[in-house]
Fold this protein.
Amino acid sequence: MAEERGPAVVTCTAPVNIAVIKYWGKRDTDLILPINSSLSVTLHQDQLRTTTTAAASRDFTEDRLWLNGEEVDAAQPRLQACLREVRRLARKRRGDEDASPLNLSYKVHVASENNFPTAAGLASSAAGYACLVSALARLYGVEGELSEVARRGSGSACRSMLGGFVQWHRGERPDGRDSVAQQLAPETHWPELRVLILVVSGEKKAVGSTAGMQSSVDTSPLLKYRAEAVVPERLSRMARHIQERDFEGFGQLTMQDSNQFHATCLDTFPPIFYLNDVSRAIIALAHRYNAHHGRTKVAYTFDAGPNAVIFALEDTVDEFVAVVRRSFPPASNGDRFLRGLPVGTAALPEELAAAVVAEPVPGAVRYILHTKPGPGPQLLRDPDQHLLGADGLPRRTA
Amino acid sequence: MRTALPALRWRRPLPVASCRQGAGLGGSEAGPLRGPIAAIGRSGPAAEAAANGGRGCHARAAVGGAARCRARGSERGGMAEERGPAVVTCTAPVNIAVIKYWGKRDTDLILPINSSLSVTLHQDQLRTTTTAAASRDFTEDRLWLNGEEVDAAQPRLQACLREVRRLARKRRGDEDASPLNLSYKVHVASENNFPTAAGLASSAAGYACLVSALARLYGVEGELSEVARRGSGSACRSMLGGFVQWHRGERPDGRDSVAQQLAPETHWPELRVLILVVSGEKKAVGSTAGMQSSVDTSPLLKYRAEAVVPERLSRMARHIQERDFEGFGQLTMQDSNQFHATCLDTFPPIFYLNDVSRAIIALAHRYNAHHGRTKVAYTFDAGPNAVIFALEDTVDEFVAVVRRSFPPASNGDRFLRGLPVGTAALPEELAAAVVAEPVPGAVRYILHTKPGPRRGMSKETKRQGLQMSPGGKSPSGCGKTQGEAAREMVLEAAGSGCWGWRRGALQPARHGTHWAARPA
């Protein structure tokens, strides 16, 4: 190992996660410590993943970063925070047999890509930083609790360090050592659970999460109350619903928490709107669908953007996709409207359609991505998968 | 000077009351006003008798000229001789809450979970007119809204009726008590001078008007906001002009849940209101059901009512006292947003704001940011229409900004209504900074108004040909016989929104008569 024959290179993949009890607001913007705990579902990397290659070499003159092929500023504080933390942890391990011999003073090159379009608004800093941290940690031979490091890049990234159902503990310590992610249940815990992401037609960019949540912390009285009085109780309930695979409870609480998050955005000054008329229409559709069936069969949740994430059990997927297609007819046949896991064609009973489908809004949903809960970050061992070449520069993909 | 009112729905033939032919005048009252205006119909021979004893009634009685109305109780003997329905017409204003009411702690008595604060708007631009009549000949209570008969058995109307009758009963034995038989059924007709489809249709104005008319009918005076509240919570705030607070109250019986004027409409002469009437959508969740759902399901609402609103109320009262538009405007916007936030926190969620509302909100923020201070403040109720507060000197420019951002769909429809607005040239720099992608037709029209009094139309308002000279002769100068004039008046009354009756019952109700029975 002491015999370095070119850059040390590691490639990892990491997943996206969707919070069902939302994180919104920091109590410390440096260490990225949240005002409340949050709970998420990690999604399967077959459908959504970030791939990151990290390389370190004595020949690199500076840290450099490429995202989806474009070079971006590597000096940005969060990237540097992650780097520093990984190196600090690596330094701590010096002296162990397993310690990485990799010289901690070497500069790194990092290239990262998503297998989903950035324009979809799914581009996830969570997956990105989780991937970066995973790759850097492998590079420097750092193991163990890493969610804290990912958190330094982006709060929700800590939840992407684990698969299945994950809780990010708020923590109490000012130094944030106890603000970490923990797996509640693995992705295999609830095999029937499915996720449909309704990618909504793009609009002009809304307020970014970091600025948005700071504004909420500064100006919304309701947010403070949510964090202190509402979320703790919801977390225990949600954990129980997941443990018991209780979709009725899980679904209802998921919808309520999504709405409450957006309510605190509206209570911000100036108000922040992430939901648009299409989001509203999807919400209304979900409620009509559930009412028609007399129970919670689908549950929506929305993050800081208009895309809808719908949870459902396997046996609901086909019918609900048919309902969505009827309500939001694809603008054109060319673009693949259904992506990801297969969906069966379900005939839509006219009675259901009459009760549930409102005035169709063609083209409002660009496509539907069908996925499910998945595992945490993975190491790619195939050298062909590296995003950086031996020269440490992004490889032109074939 | 009043500008043209929005399209009125006056001229709709209304059902005619069944009453005895040849019935003459019924009892009526005059006297000190409470809340919205009372107008009294009277004509014919008895009109002369009405010349006495008016308790400070204003001269502009239905009988025309200088005749004064008959004081309540001053002719008890005459009143017992009922010759037809007792009729009263009132007008009442709309009000806009700047600290919102949303949620009841008692759905029977209509007691709110928090206090609220509102601005009463001027009746020249927005008002409800209600005629209430009682007669032994009426077989049942009946109610017409904007010309359509609706169910009079509905609990809120009955609650108001019961309360007014209860208060009237309490006054029995007083000299001033109404001799009107409390067992008589009532007929009520109500009209708005603004289109229902605009979404401004206000139960507040409606019930305030109803209660005022009924109270006049039954000779009830004093604190009436409590009665109006039984019809519709926010109606109690329409019982007063200017800046009004509806106190939450603590008592389970609601006796202390009343409206109180914080400042008269004259307190802040520069304050203006622009209502941006947004293109209609399918009906959202009604307020009553909506707020109940919020009380039942929103944790944030409870906190708002207990911890946030009380402090906001004192701040808002102070901003108003000090005529501090910066403070007033910012808090108004925040409270509107928080109200809608609690709607979103309801389950299922309630959305009253749509993409156009959001665009208006964003526009307001850009406009204020451009000027470096709060110059306009939005507030939205349970619907997409925007109510914008601004000072007089901002109106012209902001209207120009709105017009540029939401170009009228067609030139025909009057885009600007209500108080006059000057044409302001929009500096291109401002337009570039503030106007986003224009959305044609998103705003149907703008109604320019201002805070208003509890009283209705100004003295100068011309009557609609319902004048009668003293002595019961035909309207001055028209040369008709009394009979002919009477028929004209009946038709006039029928067409003008006060339900009419056949022949003989010559009681043209004078709409919006300005009474100065008691200094405001």
About this structure: Chain B touches chain A through 27 residues (CB under 8 Å). Residues 73 and 176 of chain B are 5 Å apart (CA to CA).
